[in-house]
Amino acid sequence: MNAAIRRLRSGDAVSFKAIRLEALRANPELLRSTFELEDRLDVTWFASRLENAHIMGAFRDDELVGTAGFAVQEGRPNAHKGRLFGMYVRPTSRNLGIGRLLLNAVLDLARENVELVQLSVVRDNQPARHLYESVGFREYGVETKASKYDDKYYDEELMVLDFGLPDFMSTRP
Predict the structure, then answer these.
(1) Which pLDDT does position 93 carry in this prediction?
(2) CA-based torsion, 60, 61, 63, 69: positive or negative
(3) For residue 52, what are the β-bridge partners?
(4) Cα–Cα dist 93/65, whole Å
(5) For the ranges 33-42, 116-125, 163-172, which has the lowest average pLDDT?
(6) What 3-state DSSP class applies to 104?
(7) What does the pLDDT read at residue 1?
(8) Distance between CA 80 and CA 35 in Å, rounded?
(9) How confident is the model over 105-124, as pLDDT tens digits?
(10) 16-23: which pairs have CB atoms within 8 A and are 24 or more residues apart?
């Protein structure tokens, strides 16, 4: 599989905004935002976000085809925890291992900065849940009606990967 993974920077803002809007148009429930809200944001807002967050991008033939973000939680009592967010792979690049490459890149970064990583995933998103479980994430709760789009509610599974647990390394491909 030929994909390059690297951290996105302000110069990637136009491509990042485009893939983000594509994801929000198709599946806003997966990203907890709306197309209408983010479409109104200037590209400089996205450039600033890329400079102030760790957002990894997957590129195939110089095209941004996937993203995943990581942030260390704020405040001293929470600084041992990180959060995975905004994971998305374009439909034309799915089932090629790109999601796993992005996830592993984020986890490599996280391992250097935190003790555990948390995420939330729409309960109906079986492919994402399977990917997260395959690298050692485990469910620790469910947020019922976590989001609502139109008249439909979406529950989210809360997951955690604790780098200190012995089974983490044995589950990582």
Answers:
(1) 94
(2) positive
(3) none
(4) 7
(5) 163-172
(6) helix
(7) 62
(8) 32
(9) 999 999 999 999 999 999 99
(10) 16/46, 16/50, 16/55, 16/57, 16/64, 16/67, 17/41, 17/43, 17/46, 18/64, 19/64, 19/65, 19/66, 19/67, 19/88, 19/90, 20/46, 20/67, 20/86, 20/88, 22/90, 23/88
pTM of the model: 0.88
Please return the burial class of 158, using the count of CB atoms within 10 Å of its CB with bins 0-12, 13-18 and 19+: middle
Identify the residue whose tokens are 């900065």. 113
pLDDT at 170 over 60: no
- How far from chain centre, in Å, is Cα 107? 11
User: 67 has which bridge partners?
Assistant: 57, 88
Tell me how many helices (H) and strands (E) the chain has: 6, 7
How many whole angstroms separate alpha carbon 36 and alpha carbon 64?
22
**Residue 138 reports pLDDT greater than 70:** yes
Which structure tokens are listed for 146?
């976590």
Show the CA angle centred on residue 162, arms to residues 160 and 168, nearest 5°.
110
Residue ranges in 54-166 assigned as alpha helix (H): 98-111, 126-134
